[in-house]
Amino acid sequence: MSRCHCQTTRRGFVTGCSAAIAALAGSRFNSLAFAQGGNPNDEILVVLFLRGGQDGLNLVIPTGGFDRGRYQALRPNLAIPAAVAAARPLGSLPGPDGAVALGLHPAAAPLFDLYQDGRLAVAVACGMSANERSHFDSMTWMELGTPGVGNTSSGWLTRHLASASNLPPQMLMPSVSIGGLQALSQLGSYETVAMGSPYDFSLSTGPWSARTAQRVALRNLYEGDTTWLHQAGVQALDAVDIVELYASGGYVPLPGAVYPDTWFGDNLKTIAQFIKLDLGLRIATLDLGGWDHHESEVVNGSPTQGIFADLVDELSRGLAAFWADLDDPAVNFPNQRLTLVVMSEFGRRAYENDATGTDHGHGNNLLVLSGHAIGGLHGTWPGLREELLNEGDLEVTTDFRRVLSEIVVRRLANPRLDLVFPGYTGYQPLGVVTGVDLGVGEPIFSDGFETGDTRNWIVGP
Amino acid sequence: MFFAPSPRPPRLYSRPTGVPARAPAPLPGSEYPLASAMRRKRPRLGPGPPDLPPVRPPLGVLVYTRAGFGHRGSELAAFDALGGTDAERLAAWVTQQLQPAAIADTECDAKLAAGAYATLGKSYTQLWQDHFVADNDWDERIQPATETELATWTRAVYSKRQLLESLVHFWHNHFNVYAYEFVEGPMWVHWDRDVIRAHALGNFRLLLEAVCKAPAMLVYLDNFVNFAEDQAGYSNENFARELLELHVLGAAASYGRIPRSQVPLDPQGRPLGYCEEDVQDVARALTGWTFDIDWESWRWGGGNSGQFVWVDSLHSTEAKRILGVDLPAGRTAQVDGRHLLDVIAAHPATGRFLATKLCRRLVGDFPPPELIDSAAALWTSLWQSPTQISQVIRHILVERPEFALTWGEKIKRPFEIAVSALRAMGTGVRFYQQVPAPPDWNDWHPDFQRTASLHWMFESAGQVVFGWHPPNGHPDLRGAWQCSTPRVALWRLVNWMIETDDDGNGRFAGIVPWTLATLPAGERSANAVVDLWLWRIFHHGVPAADRAQLVEFLSQGFNPDLDLPLATNDWPYYWQDRVNSLVGLIFMSPEFLWR
Description:
The structure holds two protein chains of two kinds. Chain A is of the alpha/beta class. In chain A, 27% of the residues lie in helices and 14% in strands.
């Protein structure tokens, strides 16, 4: 069966090059007055991107009220039975046709435990209004943080790292991208290390008698010149050095943390390992792909089985293991400093299609797992009545940047939203995490930032 | 011997002026070298140091690196012999390469035969019956895909038809399909041989139709279940969307969800691009383009022959309008679909999109607009010519000046690094697998062990051949490949390639034996060995500081003009290991990455 697996996906939108940089009159950021933060911020943000468009409506499921009937009518074969979903109740939200009770897919039982502990915030109907139902455009706009604009030359996480004033001057490995090529949300970030597995991330081939000398010579070759290629090589060498020195001894998770035995589980484990190694990690990205189910989301007539259920199970067990692994007294409970966001480029169509699958949709859930989460349901339920759908899809009632910006401000203590999400104004936290709403500054420069024209706005060489 | 008969290759020093020979002194407070290296690198938010372009190599090297997979053996000498001037040589080389059938390829043919790839010669029906219908184990199901993958490595390394292989690589990426799947795998030989390779230098409109009819693409992007809504109650626009966005007009020509009437027109009154309504109508025009697989054929009373079929009973009979052209109601699937393909193939935005991608592949990441304009205009004007692609390639490589003058605007992607290293070191291995694999690794044929290990190490770089999942294909911009994942993966890989076993046999090539055979006894100084290998790999100068670094590495502190005892590999200096590592180091160096 075909589906867009979207394990690693990048479209080249790097428009920064030396000529363009030379055109910038001086460095804009150097003359900005950053808010002087107090203590250095040691919060960690992990962004998990579900590639393919996760079917949010079958993860967070209407179990009662008028919309339950609509859900069943829209999805005669795919609807999760009300009793099954209501066994893991998330609560209810007001809706245009009365309150809607929402429950969780049975395969997400590990997530439900976290929800009951108040660690999980579920924001419904998030997304961006600029949605062409194209994987590549949507992922690109979300990861660059500029909906509708695809040629921004930096990712939103890059811009956060560049504008945050409360980070220590020296961190060994502040930002990683695990599982493949560097994530688009970290586009342009020279301090981000991309790797698959740490065990392969080493210079451990070649005749052993020459390895040490070769390592030294390689570094000299890359440090001897100053092109971007040399700089990228030095950065890779630095990363290899760190991983080989500190992270190559094998990693044993805490006994209660049982990761799924998959690529996704391994990548989560790697991030946990790096957090515990105290390398100063602040930002991590990883993917879980395979959510693009245009057909056969159910098996044997049961919507609680099949590829969607398997993925939800993998996702949930992975996150639960990750949380439990970081609940580690030996390293001072890093899960208390953690915020993990689960996002997808769009949801799926409210209507099922003829192949018992779903097509590309619109609004979707944003999950926030955090040591400072305000657990529960958040956001505005848009309703499933025909007239309330956006061309057959769940409407978007919360811009995804609203949730991400709340995390950036309240957890990462970076008020420079004008830089992290150019063109996004009107900061209005939804209340998914606790924290202080630092004065979100007015843009100091007037060229390009308010209009959201980011093409001349380049970060890094 | 591969280079001109002179007793030893010349000393090679050349570097651009004004570049410091060494890195600046460590910053104060960084007594420990590692600490200085670990300083957090804030991105430079403003003008950085100027990009110093690497020195352009001789034309033969440039041509083989960018229009092929790197030079090998006597190819550079043959290139130089093609004419008296660079312009003559380039024109002659391109002319030759655009007639690949006329290039004798005996060594590559021998390597393909040695690989014993049982599926490459199978017919469409044989592939379908033997590998799909037969429903054997997974390894046998996808054997056509895995054998094509091995053949791809083989051809990239050994074929003299380098431009053809480059273009085949390009088209596989452009019409990306993930090969190791249920239907795609069994039919992969057909996809590679009869769709991509058959049309790689021919006509794009014919290539398009072959693509639209191939089971690999029909399943990968779901068009095989794209039926008229009013007949089957189900349509699937996945392929139609990607056809317009990724294959033909390109995302730059997309106007999104605006009404058709608002799409701006060119001076001839033709829409400049496509909108959402066009995507819907393209999907309708392609309804009923499917193939005879019993998953779906029950809808029209078909069987399970695997043959492509136009099913008119499931074709949309509505009127359609695409890019300003009306497709009247009530026509057959064949007529509607072919008309659609004519319209999109002839549209100027297609020429622009394909010209941009070809120039990006062959010249630089950001090709100059005048080059793109020129190639695009030619592409569109030749849309019905059987030699369209060849002529546009010739235009880009020979008739325009940019190709021969550009260097260092691109870097090699992982596949190019691996293949050009194998070519430069003079490998002779075959790419081999056993299906089914013996249960015990120790029973695997050594060639299979080597091939499998190559694959496992190469996988980490993120560019598995035919292994990119989403339909946009491997990116072709340096920004995607400069991050640490592929860099570290390829450092590990090339350094593994140069290893020898306990008997001193090279895993992929006899580096030391060749060195000993080329440099006479008594003349094997560190300087001489470094220069020999720099010549063999680069055929031109590298920056003096880099060369000095390599000499220092090889000489292990000894006087670099002294003859080294390379005939043995004893403690404590292990001179043969050191020579092998030198070659690995050169393949790891930044100089080897430029394209």
